[in-house]
Structure formats: structure tokens, C-alpha cells
Amino acid sequence: MTMTLSTERNKRLVRSYLNALSSSDRLGPFRYVSRAFRLSGGVLTGDLDLEDAIKWRQEFISAFPDFRIEMGPGIIVAEKDTVAIRVHWTGTHLGDFQGLSPTHRRVDVPICAFFRIRNGLIDRETHLTDSLSLMEQLKGPHADIPVQEGAEGTEVKPTAMVEPSHRFFVPPENIPGPWWESLGPDGR
Predict the structure, then answer these.
(1) CA distance 91 to 61
(2) What is the C-alpha to C-alpha distance for residues 98 and 77, in angstroms, rounded to an integer?
(3) Which alpha helices (DSSP H) does 32-167 contain, by range?
(4) 10 Å Cβ neighbour count for 81?
(5) I want to staple 95 with a disulfide (CB 3.0 to 4.6 A). Which of 62, 100, 109, 156 is the partner?
(6) Domain boundaries, the chain
(7) Is 134:109 a contact under the CB 8 Å cutoff?
């Protein structure tokens, strides 16, 4: 199969997965992922396996029951086994979300998501989310970034990876690890 056919197939897979995330079938998206699936980044506090990703998604949908991924014309690129896409998600905050009681506010949050495809299924999903924008939309302008416990009980604000024009914030523990180092010499 040529690279073009393979990358186009991978893009279709990611689009189908994202469409399924917006559907009322809460487990539907997981038919597009492998059993070794890992989810990280965004508003997550760590790396989740498939079982934890399903639980997290159910909790997230409880907080934002009208959650939708808006792809629009979006940017989607693929190279070998990796697909990157820029989209945004919308939803109304109607349930507890990371300790924040419902605000009944509607949010619109840009994200960049990266997917690794293995054997025709999504094996890895990593997000870069504009968390500052999300917190401002939920709590109002100048919302504090959650304080985390530091060394020896001290409180520290996490350092961030920030892209100036888009204000993407990723707490250090959510910065994707070098998963590519686990690949063999042939890239698999």
C-alpha cells in the first residue's frame, strides 16, 4: 500500500473516532482503539490505559453531557503512523469537573490532538489543550491555574509549555514521553 493511501486511511480513522466521541454511544469511540490504547495530555493528570480512559470519558461526559468535537475545516496532517489534527470541543458544564461544581457555562476549547496508528487502530492519543481558556470560560477571566503539591509539602504552580499565539498549557506531567524511543529500528 502506498504511503498516500495509508495516511489517508489513518486520517479517516481519526475522523471516525472523533465523530464517535461526539455521538450518544458513549462506548462507540473505543471500537477505533487498540487494547494497548494510551490517552494523555489535555486536562488529564496522567497517562491512562484503555480501562481508565473509558472511566474518565464517562466522568467527563457527566460534567459536559452535550460534549461535541467540532472539526470544521480543521487542520489534519498525517505522516507514516501519526495523525495530527486541530479541532475544538464544546460543551455545557453541568456536572462536577475536576473538583469544580457545575457552572452551567458553555465552553469552546481549542485542542491539538496527536494519534499513533498501529494495525489499523488508534494506539496512542495525546492532546495539547488550551487549559487557560477552559478555566477562564468556567471560572471567569484571570482564573487561577490549580495549585499542585510540590516537594516537601510546598505548593507550586506547574511550569507550562506555552505556544504564544494559542496559549496551549500542558502541565509537566502531561507532556508526552518519548514513546517513539520504544519503536524498533524499522519504526514499529
Answers:
(1) 9
(2) 32
(3) 50-63, 131-139
(4) 18
(5) 62
(6) 3-172
(7) yes
Question: Rounded distance, CA 50 to CA 168, Å?
Answer: 25
The answer to whether the beta carbons of residues 166 and 134 sit under 8 Å apart is: no
Asked if 144 contacts 131 with a C-beta cutoff of 8 angstroms, the reply is no
CATH topology classification for 3-172: Nuclear Transport Factor 2; Chain: A, (3.10.450)
* CA–CA separation, 167 and 98 (whole Å): 20
State the residue for C-alpha cell 494559542.
166
End-to-end Cα distance, the chain: 16
Question: Which cell is 181 given?
Answer: 524511543
Residue 179 C-beta-side C-alpha neighbours within 13 Å: 18
pLDDT by 10s per residue, the chain, length 188: 455 679 999 999 999 999 998 887 777 888 999 999 999 987 777 889 999 998 988 899 999 999 999 887 768 999 999 999 999 999 999 999 988 999 999 999 999 999 999 999 999 999 898 888 888 999 876 555 554 444 455 444 444 443 334 444 444 444 444 444 444 454 44
Q: Identify the sign of the CA torsion 161, 90, 22, 101.
A: positive
Separation CA 39–CA 126 (nearest Å): 6
Cell output for 179: 514513546
